[in-house]
């Protein structure tokens, strides 16, 4: 379905939030909201689910720990056991520091990587940011859910809440 | 305790309500924030910046020449001998790793504790961490004598068996601790930079726009991305917090797992970590005092920030003093003549002067910060931060050189005098650090714009009469 998206640019956070509230009341589809800084509590208003990055981070940590301890055990007790001062080959306590460092390393890298992947951010991606939204403007992108709402209603709604500019973008 | 920064204001002014307003001076709007912080990056560098940069680059050149000469000629150009096998090189290594710790503490630990005052200083403190770790990592590599074989420290498949590294060695733990610390700090810092790089991109034209376009990953400030982004920051902070404690603990095991009297103590890991935080905070405070003047960021790095950091300095400085006392007590109480001698030798031996410098700079000098008047005087605070940095360098020197100098066997005792090549390498470390930091100030936003904007927005919401979200 080819849908047209109206983007309203606001000067302050309060206008953006009131526009979001009315859009939701009237059953308008909110495509996304844009702001120069993270707005406290906007996730709940937009119904954004709590990020599952915690799970990714946990699995990354677990992988790092397993690989770290496993590799240390394999290389010092299986692949080529070397007698170091009569210590046991599988000297687990001595493997803890490196195991811990690899836990943190894998956890951190996987979190950052998945954040960028899920948010579709990558080096050199061309930006489609609404002008001013990285400075001091706020933007709301809305579209009709179905034909029951007159098309002219959308820009009017945005302007009612103080949009200084309303743009039309053909999206999908 | 010491972390109640935002409620503190300049002594002369009436005590303001505990709103984040005290943390951003003047009535700033989001546009002002963008303008103020981007402005120094978008105009030609000032004469002061050039002077500082040339100074730093000269120090770096001295370091490069010294290290070049040492690598070309051999480790014999250093003053080390068979008794004192670690000298300036490892002292510099431990010193620089320590400097890095405050950056992670400010960016990660204070994020988890929701200390809003961190927002003005976290970006540059993290940059400082990265540069300090680069400096730190160079010294062991130089110390190897054949730096082109440095990759031998990594466990990689090879045709010698494969022969693996010795996982039981504290020196190998260092490789992983420092490597992880550098990588995670870099990732955390860069993730934090992305929204601000997008701001720079949208202000720039031509080549600058294209460069920042590539670097900002196509950031568009979407609410969904922000939500995920904030979660990722909290997760990275939670990982960095135990990491920072582990790094200097691992560094301390280089000493603590040996049998040298004065090194072989269990107090060393916490002793090193708190010393690291102490010296790092002194360095951050010093850089911030310079930056707020040179870059005219007085409205963003306010007296409230300086007060808060001073309190952390006096707190950590006192713990460092306690650690020194603990060490002396343990030596005496152990009943071991070798241990007792090691400490008597530190204080009254041939290098006793370095112990005196250490105590004066690290224990006595920061105690002046209990006084509100001293904390209010920028000149005094600046002087104390320099003293603390000197003192913390000497702390590492005392631990390393005086312990090795005279251990169990009097016939093996010797002295240690650094050569000009070693002094050159020390100077070069500072040169590299300041060169990188000045380049950072010039090309990247020193203050996290989006975080300041969030603080400003919150202050506007709560108004100045309300208590606001009480920072703990």
Explain the overall architecture.
The complex is a heterodimer of chains A (172) and B (472). Chain A has a four-stranded antiparallel sheet with strand order 2-3-1-4, covered by helices on one side. With 172 residues, chain A is an alpha+beta fold. Chain A contains five helices and four strands. Chain A starts with a strand and ends with a strand. Chain A has two domains: 3-36 and 132-171, ACT domain (Alpha-Beta Plaits); 53-118, no CATH class. Helix content of chain A is 47%, strand content 16%. Chain B has 472 residues and is mostly helical. The N and C termini of chain B lie close together (10 Å). Mean pLDDT of chain B is 86; it is low at 1-21 and 464-472. In chain B, α8 packs antiparallel against α13 and α9 packs across α10. In chain B, 68% of the residues lie in helices and 0% in strands. Chain B has a single domain (21-153, 165-462), classed as Formate dehydrogenase/DMSO reductase fold, CATH 1.20.1630.
Overall radius of gyration of chain B: 23 Å
- Classified by CATH, the class of chain B is Mainly Alpha
Assign a percent range to the helix content of chain A.
Answer: 40-55%
Please report the two chains with the greatest interface, counting residues with C-beta closer than 8 angstroms to the partner's C-beta.
A-B, 65 and 67 residues
How many independent structural domains of chain B?
1
**Class inferred from helices and paired strands of chain A:** alpha+beta
> Total number of β-strand segments of chain B?
0
Low-confidence stretches of chain B: 1-21, 464-472
- Which CATH top level class of the largest domain in chain A fits? Alpha Beta
**CATH fold naming of chain B:** Formate dehydrogenase/DMSO reductase fold
Ends apart, CA distance between termini of chain A = 6 Å
Q: Indicate the structural class of chain B.
A: mainly alpha
- How many structural domains are formed by the residues of chain A? 2
Low-confidence stretches of chain A: none
Describe the global form of chain A: rod-shaped
Structural Rg of chain A: 25 Å
Average pLDDT metric of chain A = 85
The H-level CATH homologous superfamily of the largest domain in chain A, spelled out, is ACT domain
Estimate what percentage of residues of chain B fall within beta strands: under 5%
């Amino acid at each position: 379905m080819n849908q047209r998206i109206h983007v309203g640019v606001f000067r302050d956070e309060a206008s953006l939030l009131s526009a979001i509230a009315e859009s939701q009341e009237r059953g308008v589809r909110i495509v996304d909201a844009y702001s120069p800084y993270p707005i406290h509590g906007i996730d709940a208003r937009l119904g954004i689910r709590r990020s599952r990055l915690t799970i990714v981070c946990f699995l990354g940590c677990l992988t790092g720990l397993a690989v770290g301890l496993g590799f240390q055990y394999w290389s010092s007790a299986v692949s080529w056991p070397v007698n170091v001062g009569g210590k046991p080959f599988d000297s687990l306590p001595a493997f803890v520091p490196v195991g811990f460092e690899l836990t943190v390393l894998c956890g951190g890298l996987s979190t950052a990587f998945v954040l960028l992947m899920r948010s579709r951010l990558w080096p050199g991606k061309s930006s489609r940011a609404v002008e001013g939204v990285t400075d001091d403007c706020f933007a709301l992108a809305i579209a009709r859910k179905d034909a029951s709402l007159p098309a002219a209603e959308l820009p009017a709604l945005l302007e009612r809440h103080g949009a200084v500019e309303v743009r039309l973008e053909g999206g999908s | 305790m010491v972390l109640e920064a935002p409620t503190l204001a300049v002594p002369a002014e009436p005590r303001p309500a505990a709103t984040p307003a005290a943390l951003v001076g003047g009535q700033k709007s989001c546009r002002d924030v963008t303008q103020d912080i981007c402005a120094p990056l978008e105009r030609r560098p000032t004469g002061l910046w050039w002077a500082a940069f040339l100074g730093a680059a000269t120090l770096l050149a001295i370091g490069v020449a010294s290290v070049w000469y040492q690598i070309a000629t051999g480790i014999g150009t250093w003053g080390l001998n068979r008794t004192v096998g670690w000298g300036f090189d490892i002292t510099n290594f431990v010193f620089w790793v320590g400097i890095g710790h405050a950056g992670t503490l400010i960016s990660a630990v204070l994020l988890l504790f929701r200390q809003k005052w961190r927002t003005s200083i976290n970006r540059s403190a993290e940059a400082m961490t990265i540069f300090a770790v680069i400096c730190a990592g160079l010294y062991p590599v130089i110390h190897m004598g054949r730096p082109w074989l440095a990759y031998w420290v990594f466990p990689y498949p090879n045709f010698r068996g494969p022969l693996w590294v010795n996982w039981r060695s504290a020196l190998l733990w260092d490789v992983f601790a420092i490597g992880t610390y550098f990588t995670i700090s870099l990732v955390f810092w860069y993730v934090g930079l992305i929204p601000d790089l997008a701001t720079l991109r949208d202000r720039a034209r031509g080549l600058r726009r294209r460069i920042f376009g590539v670097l900002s990953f196509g950031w568009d400030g979407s609410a969904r991305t922000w939500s995920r982004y904030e979660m990722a920051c909290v997760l990275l902070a939670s990982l960095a917090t135990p990491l920072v404690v582990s790094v200097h603990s691992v560094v301390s095991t280089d000493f603590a797992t040996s049998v040298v009297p004065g090194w072989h103590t269990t107090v060393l890991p916490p002793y090193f970590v708190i010393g690291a935080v102490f010296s790092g905070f002194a360095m951050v405070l010093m850089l911030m005092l310079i930056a707020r003047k040179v870059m005219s960021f007085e409205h963003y790095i306010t007296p409230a920030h300086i007060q808060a950091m001073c309190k952390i300095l006096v707190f950590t400085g006192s713990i460092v003093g306690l650690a020194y006392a603990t060490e002396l007590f343990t030596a005496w109480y152990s009943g071991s003549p070798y241990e007792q001698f090691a400490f008597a030798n530190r204080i009254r031996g041939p290098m006793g002067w370095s112990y005196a410098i250490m105590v004066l700079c690290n224990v006595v000098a920061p105690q002046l910060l209990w006084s509100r008047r001293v904390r209010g005087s920028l000149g005094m605070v600046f002087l104390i931060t320099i003293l603390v940095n000197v003192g913390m360098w000497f702390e590492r020197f005392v631990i390393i050189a005086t312990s090795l100098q005279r251990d169990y066997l009097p016939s093996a005792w010797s002295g240690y005098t650094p050569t000009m090549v070693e002094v050159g390498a020390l100077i070069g470390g500072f040169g590299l650090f300041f060169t990188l930091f000045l380049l950072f100030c010039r090309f990247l936003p020193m203050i996290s714009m989006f975080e300041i904007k969030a603080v400003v927005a919150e202050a506007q919401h709560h108004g100045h009469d309300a208590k606001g979200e009480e920072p703990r």
